[in-house]
Amino acid sequence: MSQSTTVHVGLDVHKDSIDIALADAARETEVRHLGTVAGGTDAVTKALRRLVSAGHRLHIVYEAGPCGFALQRHLAALGWHCDVVAPSSIPRPPGERVKTDRRDAMKLARLSRVGELTPVRVPDSADEAMRDLVRGREDAVREQRNARHRLKALLLRNGVAYSGRSAWSAAHLRWLATVRLPHAAQQIVFQEYLHAITEAGARITRHEQALRDALPTWTLSPVVTALRALRGVQLIAAITLVAEIQDFWRFASPRQLMAYLGLIPREDSSGPRRRQGAITKAGNAPARRMLVEVAHLYRYPARVSPVIARRQAQLPKAVTDIAWTAQTRLCSRFRRLAARRVPHNKIVVAIARELCGFVWAIAREVTPEPNSSNSH
After folding, report:
1. By the 8 A CB rule, do 215 and 158 touch?
2. Which residues does 356 contact at the CB level (< 8 Å), separation at least 6?
């Protein structure tokens, strides 16, 4: 089939409607709006089949959004090329003030024709299911944390203080069971907050057990096992990192992964002036948060504890060597930065950024390089 029969199709996808725009391969032709169809897969498939029947080869593209990847998987199963692009990577003129579904679809078709769009990796359904389970646990953790804050604020407003050493320990929970507020209305609020904390804790436990049950049949479980060689990367942390990043081979260098996770500093440099700011916090937030949590543990001296030794027992020597190099380097760097009186949060973020490179190295050590034709 000749190049002239290729048609770039831009889709602006919503739950209830999909706008379709077409751009022929010849750049001198105008981008045209084909029409609007109902949301879902049936109506858009019917419209695109007409183009295929007319002898066109389709190059379909749409923005990632709340509708997920179901449409991409459906179109790919029909043998049509379909890319999904991140909205943040789509070029937008600074003077653009009019935004409609029709214009968005036409823009996608036009940019696809000139090669200005970079597709994101589309996970398969099993990988996406594991990621949804990880994010469900994250939601439960967030709800538990919020309920704890609200309960502590309620007690603070009423002058009720806990004299123990640490909150949310077994002793603290026993003390909460004895708390009696002066008014019945306040006691109801207190009990509801306490119930929300307990229920969120039960949800976290159920999610974590579901993650353990699903891990043995997951194709990426060897990467999870290998990452546990690192200090502080226990089961949930390892599953979270792998579920969120998945394909480490799409990052040609550790710095690319650091940028994807938003762990590199902002920069505003021009000429001889170089100005760097806080980290970008772009990209994947759950994986970034997990690396920051793990980074706190590198404030202690480097050593292979019995727990880490058990996790490393069946791993290749190349993996354990990387993990030990990570410990010696990051623990030493943590101490040096602390000696310079660098703020603690900055130290932790710096360690998390370097730890990201060791995660990249271990993951690529235990997974074969995918066929470049099958990866974005």
Report:
1. no
2. 254, 257, 258, 261, 263, 291
